[in-house]
Q: What sequence folds into this?
């Protein structure tokens, strides 16, 4: 089994190769057992493109078990302007119990908050911290989450 540092080294050795990025995405889809209809639906909304471009730009790393690490373009800082979060680490699956806890306080009609609840459940980062995400980082998070809905 490789370590996270070995995986990052391997990812850094890759050039900005769209073919490699697409293969990595397809490997992740296969690990997650995403159905074709869901992939096609998400592709229409450019979620697949966002993830593939994140791999090309080395903002997204997918480990051998399907766990995604997203390097934030704009790290999250606290009130003292200290960096508190530089990356998000996604679980490959969301336990329903955890998701229900996160969704409990969210208005079902508030799509943005529901998305944050899913991101929070997948990354174990508070919704408060996630609310500080830069729009570009949030776009990547949102694209990843769409494959969990």
A:
């Amino acid at each position: 089994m490789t370590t996270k540092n070995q995986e990052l080294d391997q990812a850094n050795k890759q050039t900005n190769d769209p073919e490699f990025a697409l293969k990595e995405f397809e490997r992740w889809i296969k690990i997650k057992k995403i159905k074709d209809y869901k992939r096609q639906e998400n592709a229409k909304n450019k979620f697949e493109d966002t993830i593939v471009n994140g791999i090309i730009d080395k903002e997204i790393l997918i480990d051998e078990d399907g766990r995604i690490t997203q390097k934030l373009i704009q790290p999250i800082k606290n009130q003292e302007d200290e960096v508190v979060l530089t990356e998000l680490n996604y679980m490959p699956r969301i336990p329903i119990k955890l998701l229900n806890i996160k969704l409990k306080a969210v208005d079902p009609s508030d799509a943005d908050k529901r998305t944050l609840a899913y991101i929070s459940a997948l990354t174990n980062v508070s919704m408060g911290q996630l609310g500080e995400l830069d729009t570009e980082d949030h776009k990547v998070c949102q694209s990843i989450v769409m494959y969990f809905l």
In short: The CA atoms of residues 79 and 112 lie 24 Å apart. The longest helix spans residues 18-32.
